[in-house]
Amino acid sequence: MNRKIFIIHSSEIVRKGINAILRIYFNTEIVMLEKKEELKGFCELTGQEIIIIYENTADSTNTNFFQLQGNNQVKWIAFLNDHEEPAQALPFCKFYITTKTQASQLQKMVSRCWDKTRRHPKTSDSEELTTREKDVLKLVALGHSNKVIAEKLFISIHTVISHRKNITEKTGIKSISGLTVYAILNNLIDTETINPEDLI
């Protein structure tokens, strides 16, 4: 059975970041959509194992979700922007995530949706970033160049590059958008401090 993951969120940063995180663990097609209404273009899918990670909003409607459910095995993971679980359970939702959810927690949720043994990245999730690596990661996530990071932290560009290499090895994330979401999910930066234009 073929598998697909749909990431539906109004924020391009969130979409690209979740995509970068999941690509580390899962070798499957990932489709990024801005609005739930865009799911109507996929309603003819059949025989798929589908996970939909979607932004839960007050006006959320599940019409397209129900159409997909008819011919596929679908699991839902709701992204809660207000950081709190809803007062009432959301229809069909298996898990909830927020900006405080750890990258490894999201990976485990997807694995549990598919009931398969998780695929580990090359490095251990338990390998912690040092304080200086976190400082570098914050500035990388905010779109600063190696030169600017070196100036702000009073270190050499060579040292910045070394820290960035260590960060990539420990997190398993190579893209700036992925590192940005990693920083958000680990409470290193706030989404309001990010300029999407600075991301590559």
TrEMBL record:
Keywords, comma-separated and alphabetical: DNA-binding, Transcription, Transcription regulation
Domain of life (superkingdom): Bacteria
Gene3D superfamilies, per database record: Winged helix-like DNA-binding domain superfamily/Winged helix DNA-binding domain (1.10.10.10)
A Pfam family: GerE
UniProt xrefs under CDD domains: LuxR_C_like
GO molecular function per UniProt: DNA binding
Domain HTH luxR-type: 122-187
UniProt-listed GO biological process terms: regulation of DNA-templated transcription
InterPro entries: Sig_transdc_resp-reg_C-effctor, Tscrpt_reg_LuxR_C, WH-like_DNA-bd_sf
Keyword match Transport: no
Protein name stated in the entry: DNA-binding response regulator, NarL/FixJ family, contains REC and HTH domains
Organism of provenance: Mariniphaga anaerophila
